[in-house]
Structure formats: structure tokens, C-alpha cells
Automatic annotation (TrEMBL):
SMART domains: HTH_ARSR (SM00418)
UniProt-recorded Gene Ontology molecular function terms: DNA-binding transcription factor activity
Pfam families: HTH_20
All copies of domain HTH arsR-type, residue ranges: 1-92
Protein name: HTH arsR-type domain-containing protein
Length: 124
């Protein structure tokens, strides 16, 4: 069963090496050798990571003579960000409701303390 594009994007983003590659490509197009330089993994392993990113549509690889530059394709990231944004709004609404509840509790506590303070001064 073929995975949907969003699932493919999140699967590609699940690996820290692939996220680091995307972060490097956000600075501009570069060669596979330059992408592999900061990692202590084999060139075939880098190639596998690049293929995963290509299948997810997150990068493209061109050809200029001997040079095969990789380029970031941000559209799938925008789709993933849109998906996550829905849940950010969900949590923001939950936190707002929790904040309102805590403010009511604090107001009730303050009111009770003031009421107790007035009662204890009357008894003296």
C-alpha cells in the first residue's frame, strides 16, 4: 500500500541525519560530498538518506557535468507544518482554558483568605 505524502514526509523527517541534511540544504544547494562531510557515516549511508528524502519530495538532485547538486524542496514541509498547526491551535485552546480555570481558583482562594482575615480580626 503506498503511503500518503504526509506520512512519507514525516517518515523522512524521523531521522536526525536527514533533518540535519535538510537544515544544511536550507542554506543553499550543495553537492553530496559537502552534505556528507559533517557526518561520520559511510557514503552509501548518506546516499540512502538522500534517496529517502528524494522519495518524500523534500530534495531534488540535479546534474551539472560531474557535480550533482542537491536542493531543498520545501512544499512537503509546508504541508507537514499545516498539519502540526492544527494541533498547536488545539493545545493553545486547552492551555487558555486551563489558565482561566487557574485564575478562577486563585481568585476564589484570595477571596476566601480575605474573608478569613476579616473574620479573625472581628474575633479579637
Amino acid at each position: 500500500m503506498p503511503a500518503d505524502r504526509l506520512s512519507t514526509t514525516f517518515a523522512a523527517l524521523a531521522d536526525p541525519t536527514r533533518r540535519a541534511i535538510l537544515a544544511r540544504l536550507a542554506l543553499g544547494e550543495t553537492s553530496v560530498a559537502e552534505l556528507a562531510a559533517p557526518f561520520s557515516i559511510s557514503p552509501p549511508a548518506i546516499t540512502k538518506h538522500l534517496k529517502v528524502l528524494q522519495r518524500a519530495g523534500l530534495i531534488t538532485q540535479g546534474r551539472q557535468a560531474q557535480w550533482r547538486p542537491c536542493k531543498l524542496e520545501a512544499a512537503p514541509l509546508q504541508e507537514a507544518a499545516g498539519f502540526i498547526e492544527q494541533y498547536r491551535q488545539f493545545w493553545e485552546q486547552r492551555f487558555d482554558r486551563l489558565d482561566n480555570y487557574l485564575q478562577k481558583l486563585q481568585a476564589a482562594d484570595k477571596s476566601q483568605k480575605e474573608k478569613n482575615g476579616r473574620t479573625s480580626t472581628k474575633r479579637k
